[in-house]
Amino acid sequence: MRLLALETATSVGSVALLDDGVVVREHSDRVPRQHLEWLVPAVAGVLTAAGWTPGDVEAVAVSTGPGSFTSLRIGIATAAMWSRSRGIPAVGVPTLDAVALGTQTPGLIGAILDVRRGEVAFALFRRDGVLQRMTDDRVGSVASVLESLPPGPITFSGDALERYGEAIVGLRDQATFAPRPQWYPMASAVGHLGWERLARGEHDDVYRLHPTYSRAPTDKESAGAQG
To answer: Is this model's pTM higher than 0.90 or not?
Structure first.
């Protein structure tokens, strides 16, 4: 099955094509507040580079959040359009899972995203051969989301490290950071996780595919300003 994957949860936008779970093409750019203008040409570019036509795409996977309010809606609306117009399945993928999958380290992984207004979204994972989620998403201050975590070293990854890295080190004696290129969720990770869902026979009702927001948007964000 040929899959189109979209990742628009953060300021780095990413699109990828996978064929039977293998990444064929991927493209990413730093596009803060420009996802709407960037996404369609980016998809067209990877299709051309791979020698695919839109009709070759047999399924679509999309990051569902937490993340930037407006950019998440853009990605999900685009995925829904592909699904409805071509009659292909769509699957949503939690953004923190994509961050964790892209973090290439064994042991405990703390995926952490900046969701603005002094808050972060966090989930703990463990990679021991396979990646396992250890907690549900937590949203709040850095101190509150890091409470009650198991002892031992944790590798943190996610765009919240740009703003809150010093605070995390102050709260966790054995905190280490993944390399900066791994801080942003990539469409290839969304595609791999989406492929796993499709292989299990799962897909989402495209009319019920909505962003997972960490909190209620402000009036400004609801009107279309990205966080």
So the answer is: yes
Tokens linked to 11: 């300021």
Q: What stretch(es) of the chain map to CATH 3.30.420.40?
A: 2-95+185-222, 104-182
Structure confidence by residue, pLDDT tens digits, 113-147: 999 889 999 999 999 989 999 999 999 999 999 99
Helix, strand, coil percentages (3-state) for the chain, rounded to 5, are 35, 30, 35
Options 3.30.420.40, 3.10.20.30, 3.40.980.10, 3.30.300.30; which CATH number does 2-95+185-222 get?
Answer: 3.30.420.40
Contact indicator for 214, 121 with CB cutoff of 8 Å: yes
- The Cα–Cα gap between 82 and 79 comes to 5
3-class SS of residue 98: helix
| Contact status, residue 62 vs residue 92, Cβ threshold 8 Å | yes
Mean pLDDT of 103-120: 95
Q: What class, spelled out in words, does domain 104-182 have in CATH? A: alpha beta
